[in-house]
């Protein structure tokens, strides 16, 4: 019996965490027998483009609506309706993994919801991989480390916690990167004003 | 530094899971350095009274409002505002552990939220004890097993899952009970029509 396909998606105007969390949650779900596709609600920003180049990973299909592709979806890095698929009211949200407040969110049925008041959704996903004892591929670990660096400004933001630090150190090891040197380079790439071609 | 006291509470018109989940989550939180008090929003029903007698456990303080006793609260076995403290809007909800749909629930700040579409909140709490490697005292294990028996009608309700079964078997072992024999006795006590004194 094949599971019915579900989409996994982060918020509109995606940042690195929104896209990467969709990829890593989709991978985790598929490892445990689900049939999911990660999608992104927009083009990568300059930082996110740098990250996907660095780890040689394909950017997900871009769409801001389900368009009948699935009956059920999973949300990452957001829950508020206005940040989600245009046609979110036409589908069932079965899973949410997030680190934001809950608002403008309501379901008709019980669901899986996992939120923690910490620096990054990818930190929660790292925890879930550990809890479920699923190995994180090196490239996905590199993406997840990048998302934590992005959301916590290299562990310096006020929302950053010791759990984000543990996750970043563990993921950097799996990815084989020096997170401090790489983090500086990545944050610089995101704010680099020289490359006019990618500016809107 | 002492943590500021928080209340942990289940829904109004409490069933066994609502009261027991408040007790077991409060215990888990306190084991990890928090300062919480479990309270119940009403008198025990006949089944719940049987359970607390059986495991010789003190029923929590009864209150349907925070009444200035805490600035922050944790909700179990519910999230909808109308099932919660009368003055829930005056406090911050920092944690929710639940197995119901999400509705009429909104926060100003990020929070810890853990929900799964399974038979019982106490099953999720059993999972959290395991994840955090905290030992469950035998009496609390007995209460938690009772909550699962109550919510899943001894694993026979349509909402019951294999995780509820795993949890019940594990908790029954810790509590030192034969869950099938005890479960029949407990469900019978809850529906016993002989004891007129506890009927409204
Ligand atoms: Mn984001
Ligand atoms: Mn994020
Ligand atoms: Mn209940
Ligand atoms: Mn329940």
Automatic annotation (TrEMBL), chains A, B:
Task: State its cofactor.
Answer: Mn(2+)
**What keywords appear on the UniProt entry?**
Hydrolase, Manganese, Metal-binding
Answer yes or no on keyword Hydrolase: yes
Q: Please provide, alphabetically and separated by semicolons, the GO molecular function terms listed in this UniProt record.
A: inorganic diphosphate phosphatase activity; metal ion binding
Catalytic function, reaction form: diphosphate + H2O = 2 phosphate + H(+)
GO annotation, cellular component aspect: cytoplasm
Superkingdom in the source lineage: Bacteria
Please state the span of the N-terminal signal peptide per the UniProt entry.
none
Please indicate if the UniProt record lists Lipid metabolism as a keyword: no
Class of the enzyme per the UniProt entry, highest EC level:
hydrolase
Q: What EC number is given for this enzyme?
A: 3.6.1.1
* Entry protein name: inorganic diphosphatase
Q: What's the source species for this entry?
A: Companilactobacillus versmoldensis DSM 14857 = KCTC 3814
Source species taxonomy: Bacteria, Bacillati, Bacillota, Bacilli, Lactobacillales
